[in-house]
Amino acid sequence: MEGIDWKSTGWEELAPHVGRIRLPGWDCTTGLVVGEDAALLIDTGSSLREGVRLRGDVRRLLGPHGRVTHIALTHPHFDHVLGTAAFAGVEVYGAVGIDTVFAGGAGQLRADAVRHGLDPDAAAEAADLLVTPPHRVCGEWTLDLGGGVRVLLANVGPAHSGHDLAVLVPGGPALPGIVFCGDLVEESGEPQAGPDAAPHHWPAALDRLLSLGGEDARYVPGHGSVVNAGFVREQRATLAARTGVS
User: Angle at which helices 48-62 and 120-128 pack, to 10 degrees?
Assistant: First the structure.
C-alpha cells in the first residue's frame, strides 16, 4: 500500500492507500481504497470505455496481480454507474432500493447519458450491460479490505437521488478521515436536483456526512475539488435556505 505511485496514472493521493481521479467530460470523481487483500472502487464512470480505462489504471497502480474486488455506487446516475460492467466478478454495493431503479430504469439512464452528450451507441451498450448491485446497504456496512484497512458504507439518502450511499475511510495517526460523498456534495458547480431528488431531506443527509467524518475529515465531492467540513456546512445552509428546512 505504501508504494502506490498515484501520480503515474493521473490520480490524486488522499492517503497512502486512498486515491481518486476526476474523469473528463462531467468532472465525475472515482475513488479507490486499497487494502492488503482487496481494493474498493467508488463509482465507475459514464461508459464501458471509462470503466475499462479505470480497470487499466488500477492494474498499473497495483501491479499485474492487482484488481478491483469491490465496487460501491454512490447513487444511480449514469455518470457514476455505467462503467460497472467492465469489472467482472466484483462484489457491487449500492443503497437499498437501487435495484428497483436499475430494474426499470436502464432506458432512462441511456436517455440521460445521451442528453448529456454521451455517444448513443456507447450509452446503449452500457445500459444493456447494466450491473444491478447484489449487495444493498440499508443502514451501514463495514468492509474489511485487509491490512487494517476498513471502510464504512452508509445509506444516507434519499437526498440528491432516491438512493445515496456515502463511503467513509476512517483516519489514523496523523491521517484525517476521508468521506466520499457522491453528488450529495458538489464543488465544481451548484448542487443538482433532478426528478429523483428529495430536496427536503438533503440537509439532513449532509448532517449525516458531517457526523460520519467529523471536523477534520476530507470530503470528496462527486464533482470538483476535495473540500473540508466548513464547505459542507455552507452547502447545507444553501440547500436548507432553498428548501425552507431548518
Answer: 70
